[in-house]
Amino acid sequence: MEFENKNEMLQIRQEKLDQLIEKGEDPHKITHFTDRTLAKTIIENFEDFEEKTVRVAGRIMSKRGHGKVNFMDIQDSSGRIQFFNKMNNFGEEEYEKIKQLDVGDIVGAEGEIFKTKTGEISVRTKSLTLLTKSLQILPEKFHGLKDQDLRYRQRYVDLIVNPDIKDVFITRSKIISEIRHFLDSRDFLEVETPILNTIAGGANARPFITHHNTLDIDMYLRIANELYLKRLIVGGFEKVYEMGRMFRNEGMDHSHNPEYTAIELYQAYVDYNEMMSITEELVSTVAQNVLGTMKVEFGEEVIDLTPPWKRLTMVEAIKEYSGIDFETIETDEEARKIAKENNVQVEEDYTRGHVIAEVFEAFCEEHLMQPVFITQHPVEVSPLAKRNPEDPRFTERFEAFVAGNEIANAFSELNDARDQKGRFDAQVEAREKGDDEAQMMDYDFINALEVGLPPTGGLGIGVDRLIMLLTKQESIRDVLLFPTMKPLGRDRQEEIEE
């Protein structure tokens, strides 16, 4: 039977459901179908199941056959298995109902396991029940759901017709579990801190703003959980971590989404060198335990995560990849001049430290494929990091880069309350000049530092970026089940529905 358009096919599905309801056979009144056996379990253990009766449920992905026999491919969470439906097992009336089922319908069946003449493991159904009527049409089998934008918007359909992507999200869950296991086994305590903040602090980023009606104040979705976690170190905890969602009202690209998963951890009485050890040990251990190897393919590269990782100062990296030697550049004016000569855009009030950070980003990041710690960031771009005692223009900070992406940021935490107050003042001044990513003054955090923060190492890891690396995905959207998407205009929505 041929239909003029999709709308006609959808209408027929609606009519089928109406007819079932009129007969008192509304499938949506069925509340359960238990004691199921998964398709994968049956297929991998056929000898144990042969000629035994099982109950199987899932979605019809294809159907074929005519006359008194038809076949269905049923997909559950573990894979697919074939249903062999024969009229003699049902009677003519019941068998006609089975023939009326559509691809996309969810069914449950009871029957015996056997192999067909072609050797396919199948269920010889004795009873078959419609559990949910699908009123939409799945993408055609061979072309699938190829529209990348639509795949992100309708992830539920993507998971059905492209079941291999489930493996990415199963691996994601394993990676997150392994991260927790790694830290828990080292006596770190997992804690929870506020997501709604009265001050957007802990990072240089533009926050999302909301309003609390009862208090009549603006509040911010957290851009980082750093300042709360360090308060806990002040309070006497020595090892804490938190993994969860962060929110930044910034640009979107292959490695940025407005909400993302990150982990921050803090340990008292250590510095950023210990955080380097934790980073390389955590990433390599997670890779080994989840993937069975510390070497992962990413694009055309084979990334070796085996510790120890290479270490370069930011100034050394700039010299290696651009030829610019900031050791010979002493003044802000010289730095701005050399940046402009190398087509790096800088503001007129940028200091030497600001310029170093901009030049590094312009010339170095894309080359950092194998794991490397970039250390000694300028103090101007590191308002929460302790100064390098040998050269106070720089800080005891590092960023870990793998496959051209920053996956971790860490430092010896600044615990000098007066120095921190001065850096916050500089951030406030930058904010007043229009930098809406500059940090706000947090007087309570200053008070906490005055109470006393012991020498502390802190580390933040971009969990989504780590998952991208370990699952070979080049876009953050491919490791987020529901990435942020711009709402569709009415015309585009109608086009999809047609």
Q: How are the SSEs ordered, and which strands pair?
A:
Layout lengths: L5 H17 L16 H6 L1 H4 L3 E12 L4 E8 L2 E8 L5 H8 L6 E10 L5 E12 L15 H6 L1 H7 L4 H19 L4 E2 L5 E2 L11 E4 L4 E5 L4 H9 L4 E9 L11 E10 L3 H20 L3 E4 L2 E4 L5 E4 H9 L9 H10 L10 H12 L8 E4 L11 E2 L2 E5 L1 E6 L2 E8 L4 H16 L10 H10 L3 E7 H9 L18 H8 L1
Parallel strand pairs: 3-5, 6-10, 14-15
Antiparallel strand pairs: 1-2, 1-4, 2-3, 4-5, 7-9, 8-9, 10-11, 11-20, 12-13, 15-18, 16-17, 18-19, 19-20
Quick rundown:
This protein has 498 residues and is α+β, with helices and mostly antiparallel strands. It is built from 16 helices and 20 strands. The longest helix is centred in the middle third of the chain and has 20 residues, at 272-291.
List keywords for this structure.
alpha+beta; OB fold (Dihydrolipoamide Acetyltransferase, E2P); BirA Bifunctional Protein, domain 2; 2 domains; eight-stranded mixed sheet; five-stranded mixed barrel; 16 helices; 20 strands; 34% helix; elongated
Instruction: Name the CATH superfamily classification of the largest domain.
Output: Bira Bifunctional Protein, Domain 2
- Determine the number of helices (DSSP H or I, runs of at least 4 residues): 16
Number of structurally distinct domains: 2
Low-confidence stretches: none
Largest sheet: 8 strands, mixed
Number of strands: 20
Helix fraction by DSSP (H/I, runs of at least 4) = 25-40%
CATH-defined topology of the largest domain: BirA Bifunctional Protein, domain 2
In angstroms, what is the radius of gyration? Answer: 29 Å
3D shape: elongated
Strand % is: 25-35%
Span from first to last CA?
A: 19 Å
- Indicate the structural class: alpha+beta
Order of strands side by side in the largest beta sheet? 6-10-11-20-19-18-15-14
Name given to the CATH architecture of the largest domain: 2-Layer Sandwich
Calculate the mean pLDDT score and round it: 93
Provide the CATH top-level class of the largest domain: Alpha Beta
